[in-house]
Every structure is written in structure tokens, then in C-alpha cells.
Amino acid sequence: MAIPAAGLTERTGSAPGRVNLIGEHTDYNGGFALPLAIPARATARVRSRDDGVIVAASTAPGAEPARFAVDSAPGEVTGWAAYVAGVFWALRDAGHDVPGADVTIDSTVPTGAGLSSSHALEVAVAVTLNDLHGLGLDRTTLALLVQRAENQYVGAPTGTMDQMASLYGQEGHVILFDATSMTAQPVPCDLPAAGLSLVVVDTRVHHEHTGGGYGARRATCEEAAALLGVETLREVQGDAVDDVLGKLDDDVMVRRVRHVLTENARVLDTVALLRAGRADEIGPLLTASHASMRDDYDITVAEVDLAVEVALDAGALGARMTGGGFGGSVIALAPADAADRVGDAVRSAFDRHGHASPSVFTVRPAAGAGIEENNQ
């Protein structure tokens, strides 16, 4: 049951997008990932209503306002507003009788870029409702509720890494996410102190998790786990990779499983280097991760592969696609004095190949979701 917080009727909260430093498609396999919250954020202003209606609006270009019942079931709200409706649905389905509301969304997280814009929106709504109605839910519970909204209301079979990164992000730290224990440990990652920059290249190739490619790979991994007699691939993580793969006879399945097992190992190796203050040595792990996503998981596209290749040629220490794949963004770890050169080289290469001009910017680990200080 919702309990209004000190009689408040309106609150504003925000949640960051994320960049995943390394650890792709591991979360729904019970594995490890190493994301960081980024400065770009989604903001949700929520004012309660007493008529059982949600009116959702967004400042995003082309986002039409939506009006629907607070108890709308999955499938009844579509488009961008489904992300808002899904959070209300998940909370109410869990027994929290949140009322209708006017919800206004504003976001600086690029959409379709693999930077978790949808989860930033959902988490912003969730933390705001949690505060407004005094629900008292911890951050891990909120992450699981947002995942349920994404999976069952929106229809995207995502894991929990994005939500946990958005909720647990810390300035100057990446987050070691363990999907089996549902823990998020901060790992120091002061790139400027190491003379490094993390360059993001938004390739402008749109990607979305509701397409079939993401779900197909998840289904293959779940089938492989069943054949191996385990609940998730994490349970065979300590075994020799070749021994595990030798128990599978489907080539596609072998490649998918090999990516997951080797990617988990790369995450842990990256954490060890960061904790030892050797951030300048993680580049080859990032590049190996990209090769695995390209060759074993088959989730990269030509523009993404080009951006990685050019970034490395321009002086990046390592580069990889970040996010669910099939487009989106590339990250490149570069010496700080080479960051501009990397961006310029990628832009020039895209122009030569006739691709749309990418958006290039740098990011740093930022704070996680919270309530805005200017709330009344």
C-alpha cells in the first residue's frame, strides 16, 4: 500500500544512462559486468492524481503525450509511454497501490545508442514514485521491478545490469555487477588521474532490445545451460572453457557460450587491473571483448566494427562496442591527449564510407539515481 511521503503530491527524480566498460550479454547468464553511470540523465517529474489516470509527456522530439489508466495491462500502452506505464504496472502488481499521476520526462541520454536510455527513464520514474509514496524499497528491489516492467510490459528480454548501474553508480567508480548474487561493488576508476579518457562514439545506428536478435541469443544461452544441466552459464564459469564447449555440438551455441565464459573472465581481469591502479593496461581486454562480440556473439554491425578499427589505429589503447548490439555505441580508452584525434579519425572514416556522422563525446563515472535537491 502506498503511503504518501509527508503529504507530498509531487516529486522529481533522475537516473543516469550507463556505459558498460566490459561484460556484454553476461547479466542474463548470471555473470559479471562492469558498467558505469554517465553524466547524461533522464528526469521524471511526477504529480499524483486521484482519478486513476496517468498522463505522460516527454520533451523528446516527436514524443506524443499519452493518457491511460493506471491499471493498464501489458499490451495496452505502446510506444515510449509503455516504459512509464510498465513501472506503474510492476509496482502495483507487487502490491504497491500507487495512484495515477501526471508524469513529465526529460532526458539527455541519447536514444538507440546502447547507453540505456530506456532504463534511465524507467529508473527515474521508479525512484520518484518510491520517494513520493514512501514505499521504502531498496535499490536492488527497484532494479528487479524495473526489469519486470521491461520484460513483461515493454516486451524486451533484458537482464538487470543496466538498472543496477543506473541505481548504484558512483562518481569515480565503475560498478562490478554480479548477476547471480545481485550485488554491485564500486571499483575505483579514476581515468583522468591515470591520464586517460573514455571516448564514446554513438554510431547513429539505431538499436532496440525488443527486436528478435537479443531474445534469440538469450534463448540460445538458456538452451545451452539446460543441456549442461545448470540453471545459468555462470555455474560452469570455473570449468575449462574447452571442456564446457566439448559438451555442445551446435556451432552457433558453442560460439555463444564461448563468448559468455570468456567475457566473464575478461571482466574479472579488468577489475583486478583497476584495483591495482593499472587502468592503462585494460585496453587489450576491451578489444578482445569486441572481437568476441563480433565473431562469437554476432552482434556488431559494419559501422561499429569500423569505429573500433579506426579508433585503435588512431591511438586508442582499446576499443569495443558497448550495449546490447546491432548498432549503438563504441567506447575507446585513449590517452587523454589522443581523445580528440580518435574522435576526428572516426568522423573522417565514417564520412569516407558514406555513413552518417557519429556523435563523439567523453564520459566519466557519475552518480546514480536519486531525488532532485530542488524538490519542495
UniProtKB/TrEMBL annotation:
Localization annotation: Cytoplasm
Pathway, per record: Carbohydrate metabolism; galactose metabolism
Binding site for ATP: 58, 112-118
Cited Pfam families: GalKase_gal_bdg, GHMP_kinases_C, GHMP_kinases_N
Enzyme Commission number: 2.7.1.6
Predominant localisation class: cytoplasm
Keyword Zinc annotated: no
An annotated GO cellular component: cytosol
Reaction equation(s) it catalyzes: alpha-D-galactose + ATP = alpha-D-galactose 1-phosphate + ADP + H(+)
Residues forming the catalytic site: 162
Residue span(s) of domain Galactokinase N-terminal: 12-46
List of residues binding substrate: 24-27, 214
GO molecular function per UniProt: ATP binding; galactokinase activity; magnesium ion binding
Positions bearing the site annotation: Transition state stabilizer: 18
UniProt keywords, alphabetically: ATP-binding, Carbohydrate metabolism, Cytoplasm, Galactose metabolism, Kinase, Magnesium, Metal-binding, Nucleotide-binding, Transferase
Domain GHMP kinase N-terminal: 83-170
Record InterPro entries: Galactokinase (IPR000705), Galactokinase_bac (IPR022963), Galactokinase_CS (IPR019741), GalKase_N (IPR019539), GHMP_kinase_C_dom (IPR013750), GHMP_kinase_C_sf (IPR036554), GHMP_kinase_N_dom (IPR006204), Mevalonate/galactokinase (IPR006206)
UniProt GO BP: galactose metabolic process
Positions contributing to Mg(2+) binding: 118, 150
Domain GHMP kinase C-terminal: from-to ranges: 272-351
Described purpose of this protein according to its UniProt entry: Catalyzes the transfer of the gamma-phosphate of ATP to D-galactose to form alpha-D-galactose-1-phosphate (Gal-1-P).
Stored HAMAP family: Galactokinase
Protein family according to the UniProt entry: Belongs to the GHMP kinase family. GalK subfamily.
The name this protein goes by in its record: Galactokinase
Organism, scientific name: Jiangella ureilytica
